[in-house]
Amino acid sequence: MISEPIDPGCGAAAASTCHVAAQGERGLAPTAPASGPAAPTAKDFKSTLKPIWCPGCGDYGVVTAIYRALANIGRLPHEVAFISGIGCSSRIPGYTTAYGFNTVHGRALPVAQGIKMANPDLLVLVAGGDGDGFSIGGGHVPHAIRRNLDLTYIVMDNQIYGLTKGQLSPTTKRGAKTPSSSYGSMEDPVNPLLYCLAYGAGFVAQGVPADLDGLTKMIEEAIRYRGFSFVNIQSPCVTFGDADNQVKVQKTRMKALASLGHDSTNRLRAMDLAQAYGEELYTGVFYRNPNPPQTYDAQIRERQGALKV
Ligand code: SF4
Ligand code: MG
User: Fold this and answer.
1) Fewer CB within 10 Å, N or C, the chain?
2) 6 CA distance to ligand 2 centroid (A)?
3) CATH dotted code for 54-307
4) Is the CB of 247 inside a 6 Å radius of any atom of ligand 1?
5) Chain segment 169-185, per-residue pLDDT in tens
């Protein structure tokens, strides 16, 4: 499914003619300039399509946090592209007014990388679930990380395949009984935090819809990070998910990394804390590279410039 953004009403036919295009490598402006169109609000990113998630699904909170983070960033909907795979959470592009591409299962990252390379001025967000990202799409994650395009990957991790009625996913805990593991899962789960840290992601965070303000701030920080950023969101599946991972329980279990005095520039300490995935519910930024390397898209521009000489 490809969706188009709303008319920004600013007369800018393309990002290259818009005020935001002149903001440097990332093209991020804190707000729209006084002389241009009004700064967008969270409402400007909400489409007219009504979500069909189950009442109480954690993804409602996630999409709200995304609207708010995008409004804080200040880019207009037609300057943003939202790419997803398949699954309940992958419906997100349809619920925003940004450009959207609902691709095929596990293939959001390669499509997003192509889009970013073709149009580096676009702010590209990638969304999906734990099954989409770490099972069928799992092979794409390390390559997206090492390539380091300026993308933000948001995974709604509910430790289950929700759309297909509750089978075990790559992040389901050992022993869990599901329609495809009637006697209990015999596999250890993938640890998405450790996975992304180990492959060298420059920004790795974890949030919960139970803390909407914290989640909004974290998504905004991830978008502002220059390079590949990863946000794992423990987004409860109220229909098939584990009782231990519902919003009410999250509120009692969550531990903000900031309150533990974690230094988010310490990668080894971040990996140490990430090992507690599935046991402790740490929220916040695990790791942010204080010296982000040059992005792939910036290197392309540099080479293009050199070839013209
Ligand atoms: Fe959300 Fe689960 Fe319902 Fe899917 S099945 S919409 S993940 S609550
Ligand atoms: Mg899932």
Assistant:
1) C
2) 29
3) 3.40.50.970
4) no
5) 999 999 999 999 999 99
